[in-house]
């Protein structure tokens, strides 16, 4: 991609960074809009728009065009994770939320593993219509996922009370079980209130957990960013397709642990303790990165990092959600 678009110097890094600029700016506003419009409509819309932009990446001709697409991708993905946490908190109790988030977040490394396999298969094609090379990956994956995500408009609903696939007998108990944990709340959904929005952002537990999530995300993004480089230097004699396949184990390990640790958290109703226990493996992995130049040891270290950091997103997000009572405050706190 860098060669075809004529990238030089820091062009590649700047292009990647455009995504994070819009992501940071639009994350809180996106979640507030989710509260106003309802996640049952907004989440499917954002996913379709995100994948449509991703598909468009296969047709860019210049660096500014790619930067523009990356900026739009950041806008549409900014609210995805916090909105999903917020959405699931309407359906599940505090002890149940961690594992449900784990099921969602496990799809991240799992998608990374299958994405690599799919990309390897796509790159074996000579062309797809008028596109070839790396452009085929964006176009084919974009077409598949846009089609699948349209199903969300039919299946998703704002909350149990509006679920078309629940009977009237099932709806009320579903809401009652969530409301039973909200001390002082008569209704599951309250009206939009600026004071509650501010309280959600400045809650001390939310701030502390945000720092945990920040450092966790730094390690996750670092792993995703440098894993291709580590594999490429460790197995420099291999073909591009084989190098891609060597990235699968790290994502596979991440998926398993992202399910296992939240499951343990749900079983014992403990989140902070599980977060503390899971971090040493990630620390050990980065110590190996810093202490050796052996590329095979560094490749092994990616498995240690993956077994630690991928699960922290579910644990940290559910911890913040569990300490916020009102629906409005939770909508801002999750961002």
UniProtKB/TrEMBL annotation:
In terms of superkingdom, the source organism counts as Eukaryota
Q: Which UniProt keywords apply?
A: Glycoprotein, Membrane, Transmembrane, Transmembrane helix, Transport
Q: Name one GO cellular component term.
A: membrane
Indicate yes or no for the key word Membrane. yes
Its transmembrane ranges are 17-34, 71-89, 101-122, 134-154, 197-226, 246-266, 273-290, 296-316
Query: Where, subcellularly, is it found?
Result: Membrane
**Example of a GO MF term:** transmembrane transporter activity
Classification via Gene3D superfamilies = MFS general substrate transporter like domains (1.20.1250.20)
Question: Which membrane topology describes this protein?
Answer: Multi-pass membrane protein
By its UniProt entry, which SUPFAM superfamilies does this protein fall under? MFS general substrate transporter
Q: Name one Pfam family in it.
A: MFS_1
InterPro entries the UniProt entry points to: MFS, MFS_dom, MFS_trans_sf
Which segments constitute the Major facilitator superfamily (MFS) profile domain?
Answer: 1-335
Instruction: Tell me, in one coarse class, where this protein mainly resides.
Output: membrane
List the protein's name. Answer: Major facilitator superfamily (MFS) profile domain-containing protein
